[in-house]
Amino acid sequence: MGYDFTTAANSMDEFWMPFTPMRYFKEHPRVVVRSEGMYYYDSEGKEILDGIAGLWCVNAGHNNPRVKEAITAQLDALDYVSNFQYGHPTAFKAASRLCAVMPDAYNHVFFSNSGSEAVETALKIALSYHRMRGDGTRRVLIGRERSYHGVNFGGMSVGGIPYVRSTFGQLLPDVAHMPHTHDMDRNAFSRGLPDWGVHLADELEEMIYMHGEENVAAVIIEPVAGSTGILPPPKGYLEKLRAICDAHGILLIFDEVVTGFGRLGHMSAVDYFGVQPDIITMAKGLSNGTVPAGATFVTDEIYNAFMTGPKEAIELMHGYTYSGHPLAAAAIIGTLDAIQDDHILENARKMEGPLENAVHTLKDKPHVVDIRNIGTMAAIQLEDYHDHDDAAKYARDVSWELFRRGVMVRYSGVNLQICPPLIMNEGHIDQIVTSIGEVLDAQAA
Ligand SMILES: Cc1ncc(COP(=O)(O)O)c(C=O)c1O
Q1: Exposed (0-12), middle (13-18) or buried (19+): which is 427, by Cβ within 10 Å?
Q2: The pTM is what?
Q3: In this structure, which of 179, 253, 317, 409 has its CB flanked by the most CB atoms within 10 Å?
């Protein structure tokens, strides 16, 4: 759209894009050059309303001045220092500020650069925690079908979206998957938490029995499954998982890369559901989509288990060159300031009802087979296209046409996903939902 790819300098041949059908994209490029607030702009200055907060990350709005100022000031002072046995004040400050706004139990945070790395960190801490306590047989990790935990080998192994895993051959051993919680006959078109499905948590008991309690290290789930198409947990399900983990000495990990930092109107899903895991991962909204950042939060119980042995010895043999990078740490602090000063959480909570009401008006539109929502995230599931090899065609076509009409809404498989920046107002919601309805009507005509 309006961007010249014909010169060598602007060639599209070299950049192998993530999760993108390269040949299709080259024929139908979607390119933006600027962003501000709720909007992207293409090279001709056309406004594109951001219906997905970049990729669930720009919660405090694009180009947020507080985030920008924090990063710029940091760059003027210190570009980089390794946090391997050196340190800089911004990382310590970011960690303290984060832990202060997290639910009480989480007083320690390990920094990384992405959701995938935050997840790897969580899995490694969980496995290592049991070893530190002399419980080294505990090595089985239990994930869930249809879950997404990033693209590194640990996260991919516990993840449960078949097309994300299946082309990479053998993944980690000692991994099992609980059933997912979506059933079209029983909980389609639920608003918020579905009534049906709490019993699916009992499957965890069966799996523990199967593998032996003494062998199971951790259960990892997204409190709301995001990438697979927004599956809120059935009522009582998370509570039950917590109780089962407690009964068997198993750690519970919440992957909050999507749900954290405001998407459910709180800093963490813990505040939304009142269920406390042992470890929490975050990324995306953490730095408002500016500088890559990931975070893994743990309780005192876990952290203290590592703080034993000779004090000269490294307690956790893990870390990334850019863990606690000065610019990422500054971006986190700027984002926290923006969330507080711009009343982002309050606005997110205010928009939950209008978003829910708006998306459910699409129920009778062509191809729509389910609509799900919670907090400020919603999915509209379309029927599979009749060609099995291209089941997502309806959703993809809608997403591309929406962009042409000035609205960015992501498709993932057969689902359209809506999760606008948390500075949205009802007018933005109306524009997104009305546009989706118009495109669905137009495509069916
Ligand atoms: C729940 C969850 N975990 C992990 C990830 C991976 O994050 P990243 O793409 O930053 O590696 C994602 C990304 O969408 C996610 O939704």
Answers
A1: exposed
A2: 0.97
A3: 253
